[in-house]
Amino acid sequence: MNNMTALVSCFARAYHTNQEGPYVYCDKLAGKILGEDDYRQISENMTAGISFFDPGYGGKDPLRRVVNHQLAPSVLAREAFNEQHLFNEIKLGLTQYVILGAGYETSGLVVSDRVKVFELDLPEMIADKKKRLGRAGLDHNDITYLPCDMSDEWMKPLEEAGYKPSEKSLFSMLGLSYYLEKEDFMNLIMTAARKMSVGSGLIFDYPGDDEESYGTINQKLAQGAGEAMKANYSYEEMELLAQEAGLLIYEHLTAEDAAKAFFHSYNAEHKDEPMGTPAGVKFCYMVKR
Questions:
Q1: CATH number of the domain enclosing 192
Q2: Whose CA, among 21, 34, 162, 186, lies 20 to 30 Å from 247?
Q3: How far apart are CA 106 and CA 102, in angstroms?
């Protein structure tokens, strides 16, 4: 995930939080990281792009339409799914939270006073995030940032930075499956699983192979940002991967499951512009056996 893709994801969280609740996922820090200038610029670009996102739209709020129907659904659902398991695992004794491909993710800031947080991403992403955090006056001294490429060696630097495989941990891999080759993403999970204690967890979202509707707009967005979505996965592949990695699929949600779990309250109050997860997106939480 490059900076532009990560910025748009951050914008989606900030925009949603700035609207009236109930919230699918409330992120009060996203707007601070993004900054007023980037928030305004992305707002203008998305508004101007309504004919691309929704050629037949004739309403009065094109930005809300774009965010609620294209940008926010999968981002908010995966964050809500991640938050649910993160907070639950903290209650159960979690001591380490590892965010792979962290981008402008803010969940580490929220829990850094309760668990040890490690954030891994490309060097330029880490540098820009730290600059933005400093500009916003957000304390991030308790977080360990590790510049690296997820398709290369990353576990050794993680251990050298203080990660302890013997302690209970949660690996978060939100949004990574779309932009890594299938072999690289599966190796990512295998690598994490080899260095996880029993009861530790691994959470991610992924594009399933049973729907095509997710790809149209989102693949164009990715290509426009200089990226391409590289793989999709069947549930059977995930079952086999979990078995080979010594993991158990603890929870698995389809788009329909996620809509019921995370969007019901919002949609009940915002019937004029409801949200739902893009067809084909799945959400998975695996636990080390």
A1: 3.40.50.150
A2: 162
A3: 9
